[in-house]
């Protein structure tokens, strides 16, 4: 990594990462690390790109975008899962807010 520098970071969902890796692997041979990343996103991607973006956009109105992306990647099943995800976050979310988040997530669950 000599001479390489991170200019900007932007959080993306696992579905977005999967699409980006698939597109790049069509144009050239993926590296070992890209193959590992592809295996990971294939195993853990629970939504397609379009659904993930819609879910993140809906959740953005309630919570921060980084939290929305995390929720879209994990797709929590119940309030306990959601509380675990927010355990290290500053501030707390009310029970009504968490239930609203779960309702939105359940709309996109396959």
TrEMBL record:
For this chain, one GO molecular function annotation is: DNA-directed RNA polymerase activity
**UniProt xrefs under InterPro entries:** HRDC-like_sf, HRDC_dom_sf, Rpb4/RPC9, Rpo4
User: Where in the cell does this protein reside?
Assistant: Cytoplasm
Q: Name one Pfam family in it.
A: RNA_pol_Rpb4
- Function according to Swiss-Prot or TrEMBL: DNA-dependent RNA polymerase (RNAP) catalyzes the transcription of DNA into RNA using the four ribonucleoside triphosphates as substrates. This subunit is less well bound than the others.
Question: What is the protein's name according to its record?
Answer: DNA-directed RNA polymerase subunit Rpo4
- Which GO BP annotation is one of this protein's? DNA-templated transcription initiation
Subunit relationships: Part of the RNA polymerase complex. Forms a stalk with Rpo7 that extends from the main structure.
Q: Which residues form a coiled coil?
A: none
- GO CC term (a single one): DNA-directed RNA polymerase complex
* Annotated TM spans: none
Q: Which PANTHER family match?
A: DNA-DIRECTED RNA POLYMERASE SUBUNIT RPO4, RNA POLYMERASE RPB4
Catalytic activity from the UniProt record? RNA(n) + a ribonucleoside 5'-triphosphate = RNA(n+1) + diphosphate
Family, according to the entry, reads as follows: Belongs to the eukaryotic RPB4 RNA polymerase subunit family.
Entry's EC annotation: 2.7.7.6
Its keywords, alphabetically, are: Cytoplasm, DNA-directed RNA polymerase, Nucleotidyltransferase, Transcription, Transferase
Organism of provenance = Methanobacterium spitsbergense
Which top-level group of life is the source organism from?
Archaea
